[in-house]
Amino acid sequence: MTTQLKLIPGHKKELQATPVLQVSKLSKVFKTGDGPMTVLQDVNFQVAEGEFLCVLGPSGCGKTTLLNVLAGFEKPSAGNALLEETPITESGPDRCVVFQEDTLFPWLTVKENIAFGVKGLSKKEKREKTNHFLDLVGLTPFGDYLPREISGGMKKRVSLARVLILQPRILLMDEPFGALDAQTREEMQDLLLSLWNQFHHTIIFITHDIDEAVALADRILVMQKDPGMIAKEIRVRLPRPRERTEAPFQDYCKTLYQSLKKPQP
Ligand SMILES: Nc1ncnc2c1ncn2[C@@H]1O[C@H](COP(=O)(O)OP(=O)(O)OP(=O)(O)O)[C@@H](O)[C@H]1O
Predict the structure, then answer these.
(1) pTM metric for this prediction
(2) Which of 35, 53, 93, 145 sits at a 20 to 30 Å CA gap from 247?
(3) Thinking of the domain 21-94+169-260, which architecture would CATH place it in?
């Protein structure tokens, strides 16, 4: 395994870029009424510790299927995904998933939702930790509210706090901000980047939004469909914070737009 050093913009220190995740020759075939359907074919990539990787692709190209394999919800038909050299065969606390849809427990308060998965702490420690994460996502005044009493953006903040408090090795995010309005979406992207700067998680973030990928990623994997495969990899060499209206940002967007438009090889 190769080990390199890289500087992640926005991070204060150099991080060791040892791959935490290695995906090799991964394929996924579903049985359907019309016969086998190859959704992913020969997918290969690595993710470095602390890296922010976006997977960008059109609807139906297999992004969620890929994330489900990494989460351990689906098994590959061929090839494998290794988490620190161990094949992923089931879900585990080292990987947390944030979905697009709301998955909060409606009968629990914001604080209770955040604290839900925390184990092995005294009541006092758990309360302090919960309050800390509540504060990190800017929801301190809303700790005792129920999910139905807060906005969609606030629910997303709770969803983020709920997984961050578990300190996962890898954060898997499946179009988490897809249902939000443009302004709230940008606010959530900024919040996620600021939390990533503090915690240095490894993040795999699925999106079909070009701007979102350029705003967030260290590196973008562009997928094509039928079958789903990685068509292109682009490293985003823009300093953070990234200014969306400036030419270099727009240049990346144009390149990605062209990549997505290209016909299937
Ligand atoms: N369990 C399953 N059985 C059969 N087909 C499936 C199954 N899960 C997904 N598929 C098919 O695999 C293809 C890829 O689906 P997937 O949800 O992974 O794509 P996606 O890129 O995430 O799409 P979107 O951006 O619209 O969410 C689709 O045609 C879908 O119908």
Answers:
(1) 0.90
(2) 53
(3) 3-Layer(aba) Sandwich (3.40)
